[in-house]
Fold this sequence. Notes:
Layout: E1 10-13, H1 22-34, H2 38-53, H3 61-75, H4 82-90, H5 101-110, E2 114-119, H6 123-130, E3 139-142, H7 143-146, H8 154-163, E4 170-174, H9 177-187, E5 191-194, E6 207-209, H10 212-223
Parallel strand pairs: 1-2, 1-4, 2-3, 4-5, 5-6
Helix pairs in contact: 1-2, 2-3, 3-4, 5-10
Amino acid sequence: MVSAGMRERWVTFDCYGTLMDWHGGLGHMLAPIAGERAGDVVRAFDGCQLALERERPHRPHKQLLKAALLRAAGERGVRLTEADAGAVTRSWAALRPFADVEAMLAELRRRGYRLGVLTNVDDDLFEITHRGFAAPFNLFVTAERVRGYKPEPWLFRAFERITGVSRSDWVHVGSSWDYDIAPALALGVPQVWLDRAGGAVSHGQVARVTTAAEAVHAIDGLLGQFAYAH
């Protein structure tokens, strides 16, 4: 527990791609439909999703996900029906966290940090994922609640408004430069880039790590040792 009178120190995470193995899980869900071309669809998906998220008016993530899958498949010449695309959300519970995630979250809790999630999915999809973690997060904010998607700032600003946290007491962790690190940097929110893909060029203003265990030490380095429980 955090000592009486100590400020709350928060660590927020992107979920799908940072905590959850999104690309691996998506490929697994598409394999029965797209066969050996599933990887091609996965590689095209992110760009299609980002373009659709920028469109107005806001659409629920389940609709956007289906549209992005259909567009990605079309770009790669893979036949995918609307029913096929809808099967991904029906299989959402099959998504699994990366192997290093639970140990990282447990260690951060032991050190007294409060943990949150800022995610671009709908409430019901994140609830399915949330139930699969060993312990619940203190808070999560979804795109459905704020009617906006990262990399726009709405999820970050909603979290800040809800918690009243000072940016000096908050670190955001994400695996995507475009969706998480760049907007956090623009807002002045300290960030840890958990670069799961590897091979990216380090940025002088950003703490870049490649494993969740390294992320714990980077978070401590940014927030100091004040949140340790004794």
